[in-house]
Amino acid sequence: MKKKYLSLRFKKAMKVYPTVLAISLALLIVIGVFTFFTVRSLYDENNDHRVRIGLCGSIGGTYLNIGVEAIKSFDSLNLSMELVEMTLEEADRSLRSGDIYGYVIVPEGFVNGIVNYENVPLHYVMNSDNDAFSSLVIMDVARTVASLVTTSQYAVYSMESLARENHVSYVGENGEQLNLKFIDLILARDDTFSNTRLDVEENNSIFGYYICSGILLALLLWGISCSALLTKRDPSLDRLLASKGVGPFSQVTREFFVFFALTFVTFFAPCAILGACLKAADLPIPEISSGPYYGGIMFAIKAIPALLAVCAIHFLIYEVFKKGVGVILIQFFITVIAGYISGCFYHVNFFPDSVRNIASQLPWGRSLTLLKASVRGETDVLSSAILLVFAALAVGLSVFLRKREVSA
Amino acid sequence: MQIQVNDIRKQYGKKTVLDGISFEVTDGKIVGILGVNGSGKSTLFSILAGVIGRDGGSFVCDGIDLFKNEAARSALIGYVPQGTPLIEELSSRDNLLLWYGKAEMKRELDSGVLGMLGIDAFLDKRVGELSGGMKKRLSIGCCVANKPKILLLDEPSSALDLVCKERISNYLRAFRDDGGIILIATHDVQEIGLCDGIKLIKNGKMTDVGYDGNVHRLVGLLG
Fold first, then answer.
1. Crossing angle, helix A132-165 and helix A175-187, to 10 degrees?
2. Which residue of chain A comes nearest to B67, CA vs CA?
3. Which option is the CATH number for A51-191: 3.40.1710, 2.60.120, 3.40.50, 3.30.9?
4. Cα(A78)–Cα(A16) distance, rounded to whole angstroms?
C-alpha cells in the first residue's frame, strides 16, 4: 500500500507538472527581466544615465565656477553624475519631486577657506526615502564632488599665483581655459580615479552572488508554482490511508519525497545546461569560467541540502495553511520577506549587521550561503548540516500536523 | 460473525466526547448511529477504524481484538470517511488502482461492487470533473477494496441526489444480505430507513432507541 501510494503521488506530480512548470516559467520570466535590467544597469560602463546632483549656495565666485566646470569636463572619468546649479529653494523642491538625488550646499567663505587652508565643509542633503542602495551611492557621489571641487580650487588658485609670480596681471578671455587645462594637468584626469568595481562579497564575484540569489529566489517562488501539487482539498484520504496502515509519517515522507524529487529534477537540468553554456560563453564570472564544464552538475548536487530545507519549509507551509488562495498569499509573503532579508533583491551588505546576522542563520540565508559556496565549487559542510536539520525539523513538524489533522 | 464494542472512551482535553460506548452487532445487520453534529459519531468511527487512538475500551470481532490486531482490522473493516478520499487530479481508474490490483479491479467492475456502484461509467474521467454523487460512489468503491466484512460509513449520502442515494442504498442492502455488518452514521431519513437498529449518541453516552418509522420521535430524542 505504501509503495502504491508513492507511485500514485508520482503520477499526480506528473499530471500537474506542466501547470507547475508554466507558472514557474512565468514567474521566472518576470524575475529574469527584473534581474537583467538590474545587472545591466550595474555593469553598463557606457551608462549615460547620470545621477543628478544639485549644487547651490555660494557658487558665484570665479574660482568655484571654474572648479565646477572642471568637474563637468571630466567625461573621461565616466562620472555617473550631473551637477546642476540651482538655488536652495529649487534644490529642495527638486529633491522632493525626485528630479535630483541630493544636493550639495556650498557654504559662504568656502573658496576663501580653501585659499587660507581652512576647512569649511560642504553640506550634503539627500532624501531619506531613497532606498539603501541609492543613499550609499549619493553619499559617495557627494564626497567625490567635495573632493573634486576642493582640489580644483587649489589648482585654480595655484594658476593665479603662478601668473602673479610671473608679473602677469591679466590673461585675457582665455584665462579660464588656461585654468582648466592646468587643472587637467594637475588632476591627471584619467589617472586620478581608477574605475574599479570592488566585489561586495569576499569570495564571490558580484555575478556569482546574483546567480545564487536568483536561484534562491526561484526556489522560493517554486513554493507558489507547486500549489497544484501541494494544496490539499480534503483530509479524508489521509484518514482512509491511516486506517489502512499508511500513517501520517508514511504519508508525509512519501509526499515530501515526490515533491523533492520533482524539485531536484527541475533544478538539476537547467543548472547543468546553464553551467555548461555560461562556461562556453566565457563570461566574466570567475566561479564559472574557472570551473569545469560539468560545474553546473556539481553545483546542483552540492546544493541538495538547500533544496531539501527550502522544499521542507514549502511543504510545511502547505501543511499549516492547507488550501485556497490563503496559502498562496502566505507563500508569496514568505517568499518576498525571505527573499528580501536573504539578499535576493538587494545585497545583504546593505542591511544593518543585526539583520544580516539573523538572516544568515535562517534557512533561506543559510541556503544562500551554501549556494554561494557551491557555485565556487566548495563544500560547505556546516551549512549543509544546518540545512539538513532545518529540513528534518520542517518535515517532523509536518508529520505532527498531519497526525493532528487525521485525529481531528 | 459478531462485533462487540466495549466501553470506548475518548477525551479531547477536558471535554469527554465518548463516555463508555458499548454495543454489539451480529452479521447481516445495518445499525444507524445518530447524534447531533459534534456528538462524537465521527470520533467513534475513527477509533473503530484505527485512525485515532482511544482512552480506553475494546473492539472485538469473533474473539479477535481489532485494536491490537492491525492486520485483522485492516482486512475486516472498510471505512468510508466523511468527504471524498480521492486525488482530484487523477482519473477514477488511477484512484481505484491505489486500492485494487489491475485484475481485481477489472473483476469488480465486471461483476462486483464497482459494477454495482456504476463506476465503469466514469472510469477514465478525472475526479475533479465528477459530480458529488459520482465521487461518493467512487469513494465507497475505494474503501471496500479489501472485501471487508464490516463497513463503517460516516454520513455517506450527505448532499447527494436521489438516484445516487438509491444506488448506494442498493449496495448497502446487498452487503447486508451477504452477511456483512454495517455501522452508518447518518442524518438521512432514507438511510435511517435501511437500518435494522438505531443507536443514539448524546452527551458521550450511547442508547439503543430502535426505529419504528417515526422520524419525529428520533428528532425529539436528538434534541
1. 120
2. A243
3. 3.40.1710
4. 52
Predicted confidence (pLDDT) per residue in B92-145, tens digit: 999 999 999 888 899 888 888 888 888 888 989 999 898 888 888 898 888 888
CA distances from B118 to A279, B58, B80, B134 (A): 60, 36, 17, 9
Full DSSP string of A22-63: HHHHHHHHHHHHHHHHHHHHHH-TT----EEEEEEES--SHH
Asked if this assembly's ipTM is beyond 0.90, the reply is no
Does the domain formed by B2-89+147-222 have CATH 3.40.50.300? Answer: yes
A407 touches chain B (CB under 8 A): yes
Strands (E), chain B: 2-12, 15-26, 29-34, 56-61, 64-65, 77-80, 150-154, 181-185, 197-202, 205-208
Interface-testing mutation among A14, A240, A241, A407, with chain B (most B C-beta atoms within 10 A): A240
Q: What is the pLDDT of residues A250-288, one digit of tens each?
A: 999 999 999 999 999 888 888 888 878 877 777 767 777
| Alpha helices, DSSP H, located in B52-159 | 70-76, 92-99, 102-111, 113-116, 132-143
